Known about the structure:
This protein has helices at about 30-40, 50-55, 105-120, 150-155, 165-175, 200-215, 220-240, 240-255, 265-275; strands at about 15-20, 45, 60-65, 70-75, 80-85, 90-100, 120-130, 140-145, 155-160, 180-190, 300, 305. By secondary structure, the chain is an alpha/beta fold.
Amino acid sequence: xxxxxxxxxxxxxxxxxxxxxxxxxxxxxxxxxxxxxxxxxxxxxxxxxxxxxxxxxxxxxxxxxxxxxxxxxxxxxxxxxxxxxxxxxxxxxxxxxxxxxxxxxxxxxxxxxxxxxxxxxxxxxxxxxxxxxxxxxxxxxxxxxxxxxxxxxxxxxxxxxxxxxxxxxxxxxxxxxxxxxxxxxxxxxxxxxxxxxxxxxxxxxxxxxxxxxxxxxxxxxxxxxxxxxxxxxxxxxxxxxxxxxxxxxxxxxxxxxxxxxxxxxxxxxxxxxxxxxxxxxxxxxxxxxxxxxxxxxxxxxxxxxxxxxxxxxxxxxxxxxxxxxxxxxx
Length: 330
């Protein structure tokens, strides 16, 4: 049963969703939706029943104290609504949760039930993948859809991805079959610095979302956090000559791919090749691309300092416009 009591009639609503887990490298996507909730003071109006979709041995509940009383927070997916003012006000339905452990089709159908009841006109799903992309360059964000019409109208890529997918890909296909326009935005996170947070990737997703739905999104402290993050990674990478050399190789590959003479078709072909060859992370990990199997920064036991892993010598990495598990998982 879907309860929507207390939710006002919405104006041109867009649903924006993100899920922690395999689709969320560096927590970039879930942090983006959390940022929207915080900046626009979103009010939660619904939550899915945790027992229907989550394995509590995988995603454990947490205990906390409130007013001297012990309470439990269950892993779930929550929905909130924010109204964005201005000359042309509109509403966002924000969906933030954890990739479900089971019953994905029912999970998607329940979210689509909310979308239908609220009159949602477009679903935008945010994701982040691990890729061969240098931290020193702008974060590649690709927009993909399964709808050829929507791809033409919104200048998006029509996904051709085939392979393992996450809840982002499944939800997008569910939207397509239900006749609900849906887009996935994917940010590529450097695989050699994959641990969260990654404010630079979060900011890139929000910037692309801003363009897509024609809204001005307050950035808060994200630009400053992104600069501090890059400075910190620069310092850590400079301490290891092999990592510094590897980053330079990625920079050269990225810059070459973006030369004016590189045709759109060539970049698209390279992007599809990149996705076909990408590896899949293990349980609890993230979708990755080939060459992205090095883990996050390792810790030196004697000093406790963190340092990047020594990456393998790449073949000739070429991050097209940077996507993921989704072909972004569509």
